[in-house]
Write a structure and sequence with these properties.
Blueprint: H1 9-19, H2 23-45, H3 51-65, H4 75-92, H5 114-132, H6 136-146, H7 152-159, H8 163-181, H9 183-193
Helix pairs in contact: 1-2, 2-3, 2-4, 2-6, 3-4, 5-8, 6-8, 7-8
Length: 196
Amino acid sequence: MEVLRLKDAGERELVRNALAGDERAFRKILEGHYTLIYSVVRGVAGQRGETDDIVQEVFIKIFRALGDFRGDSQLSTWIYRIARNEALNAIDKRRPQVIPIEDCEEFPAGDESPEASYHRRIGRERLERFMERLDEKQRVAIELRYIGDKSYEEIADIMDIPLGTVKTYIYRAKLSLKRMMTGAGAKAFEKGYGEL
């Protein structure tokens, strides 16, 4: 006898239908949680070009483990744990970084000058490297907030932590990023990592 204790009737029905073999229901689960999965994987593993591969592995894990989901926690919390564990596993067996050729050069947008495009790309690369230096929980929280577009309450539910802790993680992450991107923090970073 199946026991699903999810509060959300819509999610409960989707999970039941997916378990019964309804491919569309499973696809809806993945589509509804894609930004969560992507944000968590990127937050844990960093921007290394393998994010999409890890996300695909998370999809497979969800498919295989959905029968074990009982609804004791929210579906998003359960998916968060799978995504985080899969990203941590990928870090453990990380191989040398290979950059696809299409990622090697970025062409300027329509009316943007090559110089403006270059500075925008360099700024984004710096931010990515600074993000990698954050504590994992802070990085995941800030990724969920600004890339996953989740509310503080949703992040608290997903990460299964108090709302105040989410606010603290995001505040500290912003503060750390600000320090790294200005003044002495940026200079120390460049000395350690070289000019970007």
